[in-house]
Amino acid sequence: MRADTIVDMVQVCLNGPRTAADGTAVPLTPESMADSAADAVAAGATDIHVHPKTPCGRDTLSPRVLAETLSAIRSRVRVPVGVTTGAWAEPDPAARLERIRSWTDLPDHASVNWHEPGAEEVAGLLLDLGVGVEAGIWSGTDGAERFAASPLGPRVLRVLAEVTDTGPSSAVASARGLLSELGAAHGRPVLLHGEDGGAWPVLRLAGELGLATRVGVEDVLVLPDGRPAGSNAELVTAGLVEYEAGRQGAQRRC
Questions:
Q1: Is residue 221 helix, strand or coil?
Q2: Which CATH superfamily is domain 10-252 in?
Q3: What's CA 34's distance to the chain center, in Å?
Q4: Where are the domains of the chain?
Q5: DSSP 3-state assignment of 10?
Q6: pTM of the predicted model, to two decimals?
Q7: SS3 category, 246
Q8: Record's superkingdom (predicted)?
Q9: Would you call 66 helix, strand, or coil by DSSP?
Q10: Per-block average pLDDT, block size 10, for the chain (254 residues)?
Q11: Contact indicator for 254, 230 with CB cutoff of 8 Å
Q12: How far apart are CA 229 and CA 119, in angstroms?
């Protein structure tokens, strides 16, 4: 079963802020990220989100590390590759902007968490550079309210509706609440995903609603049956099955 048969887009989130302590499934070097990306795309992923890492495994916006990471991944796949601009990688908003200005190789897109200080400036700079912006709207924050008022909203590539509620029994309700807060989302496409205990229920909801989604070790380290995931490709394979289950469940209720 391939992604293009059931969903327009399934993004693989290769690593996120996870570290070696989270297990061997987390790719931390450009080479391992490239290997993981290639396997995930072969399994059906149509887009990549990655966090470039320093040699000690910390998220970074370094132009050198970014260039090495993009080069390694693009040598193996022909799908869009995006990166994070999360404040944890560079807490100072001015320094974050300077880092991005110094990028020599540009990603296809970059996520901007709209609740973070400096989000509008970061998004504006990325757009000026020709980089697509994924507007990260986290549940439990004022991101949706800020995004609704943003003049940049109509220009973003898509909205990442990110459900931070990790409760398996409550994440779906949180997801529906977040989507309600987003409303029309400036008419931009929405990618819905959860994390940890909420990852699989929210992914199935994305299938039910026909929304783009994502899966990978950034979001969840276990398969739907609770077994540890051995790779991003394994998560993508399982994700496509779960997405289809959500889609078929919605059709049966119609």
A1: coil
A2: Aldolase class I (3.20.20.70)
A3: 17
A4: 10-252
A5: strand
A6: 0.95
A7: helix
A8: Bacteria
A9: helix
A10: 56 97 96 98 98 96 98 98 97 98 98 98 98 98 98 98 98 98 97 98 97 98 98 98 90 71
A11: no
A12: 33
